[in-house]
Write a structure and sequence with these properties.
single chain; 7-stranded mixed β-sheet; globular
Length: about 190
């Protein structure tokens, strides 16, 4: 496989997974709509590099996901909300055998054998991951929950701003609110 020093993911990127070279060095295999290739960074470092590129960090993305979802273990993350790019880890991000998967690229998944799940991506590429179908399903659900809540909050904020531009209050100043509708009339 071809080796690059860095890589910026895009909408077509399917996943990152750990790969050890012939000398035992941990690198990241990247799969997209082209032939897989290697990046000379560990998977968590490559995710962090990409989050930095889009204006965040792995620490910040995890903190943001935790703020949205509550106390969740091994959070999915928002890579780029405007582009609809949400990723989730198969294991703890600090684990050397953690793979990262693009939520929007998963077509279907099924149990392969005990403790393993086959994932088929929208381009037909498939891979077996060392994760139970139950755990994988929970990770998908949490990632969709994060996506739904973030996009709902963004839409709510956009409607609020549009209401202010039109000269009307979108949300009364003393309106009751919950954690999904934290807006006021003071700007």
């Amino acid at each position: 496989m071809q080796v690059f020093s860095k890589f910026i993911l895009n909408y077509e990127t399917l996943l990152f997974y750990p790969h050890y070279d012939d000398f035992g060095k941990l690198m990241t295999a990247v799969v997209g709509n082209q032939e897989p290739f290697l990046v000379d960074m560990e998977p968590a470092a490559l995710i962090d590099f990409n989050l930095n590129y889009y204006g965040s960090s792995l620490v910040g993305a995890n903190a943001g996901a935790k703020a949205v979802l509550g106390r969740v273990h091994m959070n999915p993350i928002v890579v780029n909300e405007m582009l609809g790019i949400y990723w989730f880890p198969t294991k703890s991000p600090g684990s050397k055998d953690c793979a990262w998967i693009a939520l929007h690229q998963v077509k279907e998944y099924s149990s392969f054998e005990k403790g393993k799940t086959t994932v088929v991506f929208i381009n037909g590429y498939s891979m077996v991951f060392d994760i139970s179908i139950y755990s994988f399903n929970k990770k998908m659900q949490r990632a969709y929950e994060l996506k739904g809540k973030v996009e709902s909050r963004t839409k709510l904020l956009a409607n609020f701003v549009a209401g202010r531009v039109e000269g009307r209050a979108a949300v009364p100043a003393c309106a009751p609110h919950n954690s999904d509708t934290i807006l006021t009339n003071s700007i």
